[in-house]
Amino acid sequence: MSRADEVLAEVAVDALLAEAELTPKPGLPDAREADFGALRWSARSLTPGLTAMAAAARRAGGEPGRGLRRELGAIGRCTERTMARANAGSALHHGAVWPLGLLVSAAALAPTLAPDRLPTEARRLAALPDGAAPRIPSPGSAAASRYGAAGARGEARAGFPHVRRALTALRTARAAGAREPEARLDALLTVMSTLQDTGLLHAAGPHGLREAQNGAREVLEAGGVGSARGGAALHALDVRLRADGLRPRGSAHLLAGALFLDILRDRSVARAARPTALAA
């Protein structure tokens, strides 16, 4: 494993920590939790697995194949098990390995590719079959099949459209003068408003999914979380989702993917500007 692989994993974990610390998130764990340290520990427990995924992709020399896809799947499943043991079986970041692992692997596979184009590279990996994948469907994949939702696999095979939507929403909110937490919350709500979250479908069916989607749209249509009406709508949505036990984790994981790309882009811009600054 190279230092470059470690850096990619560290950036991904930083993105996951930024998502975890974002408060208040409707229905989701955040800094208001009594044991917020466990949330941070859960995110950091992914570092070795994400580093191993980046190293595997880098060894492939730019050519994704079935062997690499199988190796990434095996590392991802091992990482999920390690995370579960580290958190006494909790599911604080269950499912985050899939989008972040693919995006980290794409960055290692194509190190010269612009960060905003990494979802397309990740799509190439997601499209490959994993012959060693468990044949027993997960709750999310079962819900996707039952309700005809894209699910996590469909999102990845489409090139992470909601990660790209989150990036656009994030940058639009910043350009409009939003503070960083507000911009990130608006990006999260943008994902929630349209994502067919199979976790919600599994827990509460189409009604639960619509409740989260419609509530997210209400906040955005009220002016976003930075406005008085939008802030009130966010609070009301948070109360409803928590009362109903609805946890839109899929949206949070995709926001973390967008933040990963955003951090990489900022670092790329800083590196590109460094020679100019030195010359000046």
Automatic annotation (TrEMBL):
Keywords: ATP-binding, Nucleotide-binding, Transferase. Gene3D superfamilies: Triphosphoribosyl-dephospho-CoA protein (1.10.4200.10). Signal peptide: none annotated. It comes from the Bacteria. Pfam families: CitG. Coiled coil: none annotated. One of its GO terms (biological process) is prosthetic group biosynthetic process. It catalyses: 3'-dephospho-CoA + ATP = 2'-(5''-triphospho-alpha-D-ribosyl)-3'-dephospho-CoA + adenine. Its EC number is 2.4.2.52. One of its GO terms (molecular function) is triphosphoribosyl-dephospho-CoA synthase activity. This is triphosphoribosyl-dephospho-CoA synthase.
